[in-house]
Amino acid sequence: MYEILTNRSIIEVSGDDAMNFLHNLITNDIKNNDYCYSYALTNQGRYLFDFFVLKLSATRFFIDININQSDLFKNHLVHYKLRAKIEVNDLTNAYQVIYSKQQLPLNSHQDPRYNQLAFRSIINKDDFLTTTRIEGLYQQDKYNFAIVDGYDDLIANRSIPIEYGAEELNAISYSKGCYIGQEVVSRTKYQGVVRKKIFKLSINIDSGNTGSLDIVKGDEIIANNTRIGVVCSAYQNMAIALIRVDDYYSLADTVITVRNLPVSLAAPPWRYS
Q: What are the φ/ψ torsions at residue 238 (nearest 5 degrees)?
């Protein structure tokens, strides 16, 4: 079973300086990983982009990024290029991203964010797959496991990645050295102050609503007439929510609602605590 992720672009970064150039821009360690999930941040440690990096060689990398961010991301790379010996090319017309339950022969790796996710592969658009194509295969896993995707769930220039599980979803290396925004990320980590966390949100079965959650990104989550968090994104009867931690642990049996719909919250399976 597989799904073509039509909302993804492939950006190629190549050249003699490609590895060091990328390594100094992103949150994860591409020198010691052939495939990883990573962020690019502002100087203040806020979210700009998230993406997957496939190392084809020391001088050639494929970046799998949301198609709505691809042009901005290319401009971001060019802005920091200066004298680096690199080339940036958009290969979206030639390659596509596949999400599949079985590993494919080439350029195929398990999604590194959580061990129950399937495989992501970058293949030529002319390649033919013989297994069954299923729309929504990735979305089901994303919301079943409350997996955060930057473009869908975060807000550029505002969101703090650690609050969205960036560490637990394996997007951050604390041993790789400096990158843009690194000082803020490290300070947040070692001060141990994370006021908000990601939760899985589900509509209550006994509410009588068997359709999709009629909610969208930014909707308020209410308990005791007080906003305790916001919806990050939603799909069918599931959503991903950002909740103030202190409020969550004081809820007890309090009714939680979104747009007057009763909902429930649960910690995602990938979170440490």
A: -130, 155
d(Cα 65, Cα 48) in Å, to the nearest integer? 12
- DSSP 8-class letter at 164: G
Q: Which domain holds residue 241?
A: 195-266
| Domain stops at, among 189, 210, 241 | 189
Residues 51 and 114 in one domain: yes
Q: Give the span between the Cα atoms of 136 and 2, in whole angstroms.
A: 9
Whole-prediction pTM: 0.95
DSSP readout, 48-98? EEEEEEEEEETTEEEEEEETTTHHHHHHHHHHHHTT---EEEE-TTTEEEE
Residues 101, 153 within the same domain: yes
H or E element at residue 1? none
**Longest alpha-carbon distance in the chain:** 61
- How far is 114 from 129, CA to CA, in rounded Å? 25
Same domain membership, residue 102 and residue 83: yes
The pLDDT > 70 percentage for the chain reads 96
Contact present, 52 and 79 (Cβ < 8 Å) = no
Tell me, yes or no, whether 136 lies in a domain: yes
Q: Are residues 199 and 157 in the same domain?
A: no
Is residue 75 over pLDDT 50? yes
Give pLDDT tens digits for 233-267: 999 899 999 999 999 988 888 899 999 999 999 99
Checking if the pLDDT of 207 tops 70, the result is no
Question: Per-residue pLDDT tens for 136-153?
Answer: 999 999 999 999 999 999
